[in-house]
Specification:
Layout: H1 27-40, H2 42-47, E1 50-51, E2 56-57, H3 69-78, H4 82-90, H5 95-102, H6 105-113, H7 118-133
Antiparallel strand pairs: 1-2
């Protein structure tokens, strides 16, 4: 998206490796980070943000049938319930379905949320699966 060109000038919002210490702790902090990133590169900021009920990363916009990241964000901000249909359309076929069927939580986390925080999300997904399967 930005080829990490803001890493040096804005390390609190742009890093090659995701780090929990820079994650926003509140919605207000998250919006402040988004607005700062958006001022640098709006398209990249939108794509680097997760939206809606299922927190789907916007870099999936094309796979979800949206022509631009802007339209994906606009729909989500106007119709929060669209998260449900978008999530459904992102998982019934392809790599995400395959990863779910194999219970490959690392592959699913990478495909769903990107490669940066796979080791953070994969164990959470596995634990959630185990909680709900029993």
């Amino acid at each position: 998206m930005t080829d990490y060109r803001f890493n040096d000038s804005h390390p609190h919002i742009s890093r090659q490796q995701w780090t929990p210490s820079v994650a926003a702790n509140t919605k207000l902090e998250a919006w402040a980070q988004f607005e700062e990133a958006s001022a640098l590169d709006e398209r990249a900021a939108i794509q680097a943000t997760s939206w809606g009920l299922f927190q789907i990363m916007d870099f999936h916009f094309a796979a979800l049938g949206f022509p631009t990241p802007y339209e994906f964000r606009l729909l989500r901000s106007r119709k929060p319930a669209s998260s449900i249909s978008s999530c459904g359309s992102s998982s019934p076929t392809g790599p995400l379905q395959d990863a779910l069927q194999r219970k490959d939580w690392h592959a699913f986390a990478a495909g769903y949320n990107g490669p940066a925080a796979v080791d953070v999300y994969a164990p959470k997904i596995a634990a959630a699966y185990e909680r709900h399967v029993r």
